[in-house]
Amino acid sequence: NSTTLFCELCQKRAYLECTGCHVTFYCDEDHQQADWVGIHERICQLLIPIRTQTLSQTGRSEILYKKLITICKSEAERKIAEGKHQEALPAAQFFLRCSTDVNGPSAVQLVPAYLLLAEANTGLGDLVSAMEFLSQAEWVVLKSPDCGHEILHRLHRSQGRLHTALGYLESARKHFANDIYHASEEYGADSIISCEGYFLLASVFVKEGKMPVVRSLYSQIAQTWHSHLTKLLKSHVENVQNPDQVEVDKTLTAILEFVQCDVIADLAQVVLVAHSLSMLWFLRGDSVKVSSVTEVVKSGQRSQRVTLKTFVLKHTALILLLLAYFYGFIYL
Ligand SMILES: [Zn+2]
Ligand SMILES: [Zn+2]
């Protein structure tokens, strides 16, 4: 044919055709397989009307693009949350392509796609590519003065993550502080989204060995999660409907490990965090994990009681003396 075909993934010359849609092409079987697992399986049939241009009304193409964008975005987010960074790339790339087709090359709507691409590359250890995508996102944001807090919070969070990975701890801290500011403006200071920002900031302080700051941040995070989960439990929500639920697990488990090994033993804090984890796993219906952490809660509460008992035993003489004094005082 006179038209040269290009690979869906790498834009090199293509020799294979998808037998499902006949409108998508690949340079080799590896790229076909990677795209199929990554996103194509979900969107194969949706591409036919878009690429054969059989759409009768322009309105229909808008609806189709919206559908494609939603699918690619959620697929990339899910795969990143599950730690499948390589598989997330085709979905994130196609998300960027569709957003560019719909909104143009410098629209603020492209930022979420750039951030997902940066996050997937950070996960893969390709920090150079991650940096490129983040600077493209930053450039778009700079050109959009009316950019909202939500986008700014997400941009600073991604930049903070990258700078942490690069070991630029001071600028990582600045980005996370900005992330927390914008997240608090958008969702409130006590929201679990701002809370995740506090956890990321704390992780920088852990690297710097500033334990008093870590301790106070962790205590604030534990408190926020505890009241959030208590509310969820009260409203009988069956599942924790939060896209970051893998992160919550990591956050609370890291804090539990920290407070259990901390030189300043804070049993009340151990019980609070373990109780939060037991509520989280209960809400997810994971009874095995619940029973494992319930033991921690119970033994913590036991030792809290034991602490009270030993206090009473140690100070029996003093208490008796006080009682005697009071009785004596009354009788006088
Ligand atoms: Zn290719
Ligand atoms: Zn196909």
TrEMBL record:
Domain MYND-type: 7-44
InterPro entries: TPR-like_helical_dom_sf, Zinc_finger_MYND_domain, Znf_MYND
Entry GO MF terms: zinc ion binding
Alphabetically ordered keywords of this record: Membrane, Metal-binding, Transmembrane, Transmembrane helix, Zinc, Zinc-finger
Pfam families: zf-MYND (PF01753)
The keyword Transmembrane helix is annotated on this UniProt entry: yes
Gene3D superfamilies the UniProt entry points to: 6.10.140.2220, Tetratricopeptide repeat domain
Transmembrane segments: 311-330
Protein name per UniProt: Zinc finger, MYND-type containing 12
Species: Sphaeramia orbicularis
